[in-house]
TrEMBL record:
Protein name: Vacuolar protein sorting-associated protein 28
Keywords tagged on the record: Endosome, Protein transport, Transport
Location relative to the cell: Late endosome membrane
Transmembrane segments: none
């Protein structure tokens, strides 16, 4: 059968296939956009104030679009990028971590973050996460929100860039981000996570008591 060069080439034949390709295209664009955003931030082309909400929005869109893509089409981020011959290392790092660079690294733009209110909020975040682990919560969709909230508040403290707890929290963020929403960590991982978060919690309070790290509200 001869091919008509003027006829539009369709990748799909059903509405479901069209929806799938639209979702894959959106996923592709999110990864590329995040790569450009990360590079712009590293080069100081945009400020932390501009970067943070833009990055947070892309990360949220990424999590949302994954719910629309069947696992057979997206077994992993690496498999997706290999399939479409993508080379976006900065985006991969950010997507695996699941939080903006301003949270990963203590930003200097957080003057006033180390207030009594901030200490109380971070303390509550630690306690909430520890309680969840002690109640045998194991699923990503149960633990990830608590861990993300903890990291966001924890990173407002400038000294946290040098605390050992930062590496422990980041490790578990990366671990959870590699799971599907309904996947669960193992009992051994849960015990290790509980230990790591307790260590970070104790270090947090030792750091507060060793110097004037709060300014009061």
């Amino acid at each position: 059968m001869p091919i008509n060069p003027d006829e539009e080439l369709r990748l799909y034949t059903t509405p479901a296939e069209r929806e799938l390709y639209d979702s894959l295209a959106t996923l592709f664009s999110i990864v590329v956009s995040l790569e450009y955003l990360e590079r712009a931030y590293v080069r100081d082309s945009i400020s932390a104030k501009e970067y943070t909400p833009a990055c947070t929005r892309l990360l949220s869109q990424y999590k949302g679009i994954l719910k629309l893509v069947p696992e057979r089409e997206f077994p992993s981020l690496e498999a997706f990028m290999e399939r479409f011959r993508m080379d976006n290392p900065a985006a991969v790092h950010r997507l695996k971590l699941g939080v903006p660079a301003t949270v990963e690294h203590s930003s200097g733009d957080n003057n006033g973050g180390e207030t009594g209110k901030s200490v109380a909020e971070v303390t509550q975040s630690f306690i909430t996460l520890l309680d969840a682990l002690k109640l045998n919560m194991r699923a990503k969709d149960q633990l990830h929100p608590y861990l993300s909230d903890l990291m966001a508040g924890y990173s407002r403290f400038k000294a946290s860039a040098e605390w050992e707890g930062r590496g422990r929290i980041l490790h578990w963020l990366i671990t959870l981000n590699a799971l599907s929403a309904s996947d669960e960590i193992t009992d051994e991982q849960s015990r290790q996570m509980l230990f790591d978060i307790e260590q970070a919690y104790n270090e947090f309070f030792r750091s507060l008591s060793s110097g004037p790290s709060t300014s009061g509200d």
